[in-house]
Amino acid sequence: MEDYKLIKQELKAKDNYTFDDLIKIMKVLMSPKGCPWDRVQTHESIRINAIEEAYEVVDAIDQKDKTKIIEELGDYLLQSIFHCAIAERDKEFELQDVLNTLCQKLVFRHTHVFSDEKAQDDKVALQNWNNAKAIEKSLKTVTQDIKELPKYFPQLLRAQKVQKKAASVGFDFDNINQMVEKLDEEVAELKAELKEGNIQNAKNELGDCLFSLVNISRKLKADSELCLKKSTDKFINRFEQVEKAVKISGQDFSKFSLQELDDFYKKAKEKE
């Protein structure tokens, strides 16, 4: 039986912590004298946190805020340690199993570092990694590889990765003009379904339009997620100017027509 009282005193007195200290803290939190909330968590109850923390890391990187990057990477690391603590509590696996699997993967897939294969540049290194991954996972078809992609990826990202894998074996448009023509075709089908009032079919066609747009972004070597992020941020900045104009007028939004609000929007666009 561990003396948690002594461990807590030692941990509280520290100014600088190690990875081992993090493990000790989690053990304290999950102990009978630890945190009631932590103790009752499961893999399922905290699964969404991993996604949220990953996005917060990305946001901190985009802001180039080193202090925030450090904090958010810590929160992201916590998710892995938390899942390991839950697994150890439920006798599923231990942290050592995770570390072993990770290290084995890194050694096995870096064939250009840990074996005789060579990689003159980053592209060859990535190809070596993918080849080793295919062997490791016994992937015999491109479809198998595609189905390995997490279904809960952001869907723009998932579409881009699916298209890239299909393109790797030649299933791709020859040029961007063909992609734009395909988009025009999908938009025409969307318009036709809307005109007929077929809402469900229109939703399906809308998905095809988005898929075609992602394809174009891939051909432009652009990240569709980042493209959409920039447009969303741009809209927010312009809408802020619209709201300021409304407030300056001393009236409510309801007093303005859509055309008048759009005029404010266009003025905000012109100022950029």
| CATH fold-level label of the largest domain | Helix Hairpins
Distance between the termini: 65 Å
Q: Kindly state the percentage of residues in helix.
A: over 70%
Unreliable spans: none
Structural class comes to mainly alpha
Number of helices: 14
CATH top-level class of the largest domain:
Mainly Alpha
Order of helices and strands: HHHHHHHHHHHHHH
CATH H-level superfamily title of the largest domain = MazG-like
Number of strands: 0
* Named CATH architecture of the largest domain: Orthogonal Bundle
How many domains?
Answer: 3
What's this model, at a glance?
Helix content is 74%, strand content 0%. It is mostly helical. It folds into 3 domains: 4-101, Helix Hairpins, CATH 1.10.287.1080; 173-222; 226-271.
